[in-house]
Design a protein that fits this description.
- The chain is of the alpha/beta class.
- It is built from 17 helices and 22 strands.
- The protein has 4 domains: 347 residues, TIM Barrel, CATH 3.20.20; 52 residues, Oligo-1,6-glucosidase, Domain 2 (Oligo-1,6-glucosidase, domain 2); 37 residues, no CATH class; 73 residues, Golgi alpha-mannosidase II (Immunoglobulin-like, Sandwich), CATH 2.60.40.1180.
- Bound molecules: 1-O-alpha-D-glucopyranosyl-D-fructose (TEU) and calcium ion.
- 1-O-alpha-D-glucopyranosyl-D-fructose (TEU) binds next to loops.
Length: 566
């Protein structure tokens, strides 16, 4: 029997909140240039208030040349021209706070843009005072300093003729990694964080924060099928990462009442207990990636590129492990969707016209009734789906484009048809098609030409149609959010897995004091035997995505939540 940790759980506003992630480029365009902007977000605050979310996490809005759509920052204290001005940001922040909604910024400090003044100086000469803001190494035998691969194809090292050395970039060539060993870099980061906290923001999502400390020997990594080495053993949760985050906490975070969530690709349970330690000396929570990586199992073509879909029993085992292992020692984040992931109803549910709505509601129930802070990615609350890529011309994301050039053009290891099928399944651009506001041209996102094509299904799937429909995915998310605000057991109750070997039904209980919440979700399009709700137990049905429950079974994609008091 799981130890009852619920009563000891210290309360915090960010544990009780529901977070909504906005990818500003694709959310709402107010000035007709085809690109989302801050004024567009401000104009949609009434919609977000209607949905009931407590916090907006904005993907980066700082000045950027947009090599990686803002995750390559050239000025941390200025707003990206595409998105507007600092006055627009101040207007958004004030309006959100007036609406009772907090704003969390995306902190990208593992790397900057190569157009940041620090890097422009750093590459001028080996003696430049900014040289050691970045990671420069001489080549080895006329080649890169080691065999590490970049996440965006090719080597993680770029030769710079000006000084005859290579600089490290775990992501694109235009995203040179900062050297966190340099205390001046850490001072700069803490200063810019303080600048935003003093403006009144409410927290940070920290981009690839698990990568900021590198093994200073920079040894070769285990060789992958594409011939490059994997940097993970030497960069993920590196030797000084917790020292740095505890310093960041002492110097900045502990001076404000903030939500902090670290994006920690590759994080293990043991490491997560350190990043999200409940004594508050580092971060509040982390995003782990095990469950979203499951799609890369069966049918994986190369690296992340796959036509495979995750299987519920594997996803359940992972999520239940994170529930069980963090209980009482660290706080979970809960997500299935974000700007880097395919749409969850397409990946984990069933986006066919017959099952899309019901399976989207089922997935939302299964996630939102768990213990942790839930994250909703823009459009997930509408049941937005993956799109279709007819050619490379439909792609905007450098991750896809670079992969195409490497695996289709250069190495010819994947045919164009297969790569397009992989893009349809897992490309990040699936999450970056414009928010579908209504059935008018461009889904009401822009009066101009959208920077990326709108998903053609916007006439059937859009906010205007859903807000007034009590049976819509939007209305269902509204109810889930309202339940979390109403019932402490959903936030703080102990998590107890049920039916852990059932091939179709994902079920669990939550316990708090004399209350018991019973949650059961059929992840398949077939009726599944289930007697969990059969015994006469009284209780109150809190939410379900079907009309009437059938004794002894769960209908296809049925989700049901019952509350009992003993
Ligand atoms: O993503 C980090 C990361 O792990 C990504 O490589 C992600 O796992 C991968 O793209 C999934 O296919 C963060 C940001 O969320 C992402 O948008 C940025 O491109 C990346 O860091 C670099 O800043
Ligand atoms: Ca715009």
């Amino acid at each position: 029997m799981q130890e009852n940790t619920a009563q000891k759980e210290p309360r915090a506003w960010w544990k009780e909140a529901v977070i909504y992630q906005i990818y500003p480029r694709s959310f709402m365009d107010a000035n007709g240039d085809g690109i989302g902007d801050l004024a567009g977000i401000t104009s949609r605050l009434p919609y977000l208030r209607e949905l009931g979310v407590d916090v907006l996490w904005l993907s980066p809005v700082y000045a950027s040349p947009n090599d990686d759509n803002g995750y390559d920052i050239s000025d941390y204290r200025a707003i990206m021209k595409d998105f507007g001005t600092m006055a627009d940001f101040d207007t958004l922040l004030a309006a959100a706070h007036r609406a009772g909604i907090k704003i969390v910024m995306d902190l990208v400090v593992n790397h900057t843009s190569d157009e940041h003044p620090w890097f422009i100086e750093s590459r001028r000469s080996k003696e430049n005072p900014y040289r050691d803001y970045y990671i420069w190494r001489p080549g080895k035998d006329g080649k890169e300093p080691n065999n590490w691969a970049s996440c965006f194809s090719g080597s993680a090292w770029q030769y710079d003729a000006a000084t005859g050395e290579y600089y490290l970039h775990l992501f694109s060539k235009k995203q040179p990694d900062l050297n966190w060993e340099n205390p001046k870099v850490r001072d700069e980061v803490y200063d810019l964080m303080t600048f935003w906290c003093d403006k009144g923001i409410d927290g940070f999502r920290m981009d690839v924060i698990s990568l900021i400390s590198k093994d200073q020997r920079f040894p070769d990594g285990p060789v992958k099928p594409d011939g490059y080495g994997d940097f993970s053993p030497y960069c993920v949760s590196g030797p000084r990462v917790h020292e740095y985050l505890q310093e960041m906490n002492r110097r900045v975070l502990s001076h404000y009442d903030l939500l902090t969530v670290g994006e920690a690709a590759g994080v293990t349970i043991e490491e997560a207990k350190k990043y999200a330690r409940s004594d508050g000396k580092e971060l509040g929570m982390v995003f782990q990636f095990e469950h979203v990586g499951e799609g890369n199992g069966k049918g994986s073509i190369i690296e992340k590129w796959t036509t495979g879909k995750p299987k519920m029993p594997k996803v359940r085992a992972i999520l239940n492990k994170w529930q069980r292992e963090l209980a009482g020692c660290a706080w979970n984040s809960l997500y299935l969707d974000n700007h880097d992931q395919p749409r969850c109803v397409s990946m984990f549910g069933n986006d066919s016209p017959r099952w899309r709505v019901r399976s989207a509601k089922m997935l939302a129930t299964c996630l939102h009734m768990q213990k942790g802070t839930p994250y909703i990615y823009q459009g997930e609350e509408l049941g937005m789906t993956n799109t279709q890529f007819r050619s490379l011309a439909d792609c905007r994301d450098l991750e896809e484009i670079n992969a195409w050039h490497e695996y289709v053009d250069e190495q010819q290891r994947v045919t164009p048809e297969t790569m397009l099928a992989c893009f349809d399944n897992v490309a990040r651009d699936n999450a970056r098609t414009p928010m579908q506001w209504d059935a008018s041209e461009n889904a009401g996102f822009t009066t101009g030409t959208p920077w990326i094509a709108v998903n053609p299904n916007y006439r059937e799937i859009n906010a205007a149609a859903e807000i007034s429909d009590p049976d819509s995915v939007f209305s269902y998310y509204q109810r889930l959010i309202a339940l979390r605000h109403k019932y402490d057991i959903i936030v703080y109750g102990d998590f107890l897995p049920l039916l852990e070997d059932d091939p179709a039904v994902y079920a669990y209980e939550r316990r708090l004091g004399n209350e018991r919440l019973l949650v059961a979700c059929n992840w398949t399009e077939h009726e599944a035997p289930c007697t969990l709700f059969d015994a006469p137990m009284g209780g109150k049905e809190l939410i379900t995505n079907i009309g009437a429950h059938k004794k002894g079974a769960l209908l296809p994609y049925e989700a049901r939540v019952m509350l009992f008091e003993s």
